[in-house]
Amino acid sequence: MRKVSVDSLVVEWGDDVKAVSEDEAVVLVNHQATGDVCTLMMCLQDKGTVVRQMMWLMDHIFKYTNFGIVSLIHGDFFIRQGKAHRDQQLVLLKEHLEKYYRSRNRKWIVLFPEGGFLRKRRETSQAFAKKNNLPFLQHVTLPRLGATQVILKTLVAPQENGTPAGGDAVIKESKSKGLQWVIDATIAYPKGEPIDIQTWILGYRQPTVTHVHYRIFPIKDVPAEPEALSQWLYQRFIEKEDLLTHFYETGAFPPLQGQTKAVSREMTLSNLWLVGIQSLAFLSGGMWYCILQYFYHCLF
User: Fold this and answer.
1) Is the separation of the CB atoms in 160 and 178 below 8 Å?
2) Tens digit of each residue's pLDDT (9 = 90 or more) over 89-104
3) Fewest C-beta in 10 Å: which of 61, 63, 131, 216?
4) Beta strand 210-218 pairing with 181-188
């Protein structure tokens, strides 16, 4: 196993997602902190046109962060959590996908199936697992089915899984093959200490190495029926638990099936890209400060 240099920011493991960067894919990611989005943006900036042609599903609270206005313009979807909003949000998600995903030539869609940060959902997830005789998970939580099911029903071409897909007319018009892959991405932070957006922008912590592991699954191997899909998703997060346990014990992810040792790839980041992101963060932060100041003076 190759030693990772201390100045490296991101190290990738597992399957090489560059191989499918021109195909349509849904990316399933574990969620620990607001910095997960930044980590993925860094990882994907050298994967061709993926960053420009991807759609994000994020908690609605992100709408009010520095990059909220950018995401709105970009056509991302902000989903509201909670049982009271669940059904309505899934309807809105389907409508959003049918209206914007292909009309804006999107190829990848990223979501966090756990439905919230690990520290907030872990206790509830473990209680649910105990009640339903499911594995006890410490490093991830059991995923929720709704958004994933809507995405697959809406964006998978009918011939891929043998079931009708929503938005068929749009798929036919754009001659799209539909989603072809599921990319299972697992983010690991040293010592299990995630990074939030504030730390990314202001550099509260010493430089650290973030690790991202990928597994790629053909969409034809993903079940369409809700119960089978639910079990398939559970299995992915059980595997994530095993991956993260191995990482925290050894400092590296285990080798893929058929490999004798794990192979890592250090990211080569564009300085221009980093400067651009940092500048956007400061400018948008200043914009929100001015807006809050304006309302403060109006009220008082």
Assistant:
1) yes
2) 999 999 999 999 999 9
3) 131
4) antiparallel
- CA-to-CA distance for 196 and 200, rounded, in angstroms? 6
- Rounded to 5°, angle at Cα 286 from 285 and 288: 65
Q: Which helix (H) or strand (E) holds 10?
A: strand 10-14
Structure token digits, residue 82: 């909670």
Among 47, 11, 10, which Cα is nearest to 27's? 47
Q: What are the distances in angstroms from CA 68 to CA 17, 110, 163, 281?
A: 27, 16, 35, 11
Asked whether the predicted pLDDT for residue 276 surpasses 90, the reply is: no
Which residues have C-beta within 8 Å of that of residue 87, sequence separation ≥ 6?
none
Quick one: which of 12, 17, 13, 8 has its CA closest to 48?
Answer: 17
State the chain's maximal CA–CA distance in angstroms: 67
Residues in a beta bridge with 212 = 12, 187
Cβ atoms of 243 and 254 within 8 Å: the answer is yes
Torsion on CA atoms 54, 4, 199, 115, rounded to nearest 10: 50
List, in sequence order, every beta strand (DSSP E) within 193-296: 210-218, 264-266
Residue 114 contacts residue 140 (beta carbons within 8 Å): yes
What the block records as the tokens of 41 is 């943006």
Write down the pTM of the prediction: 0.81
Amino acid (one-letter) located at 196:
D
Distance CA 245, CA 81 (A): 28
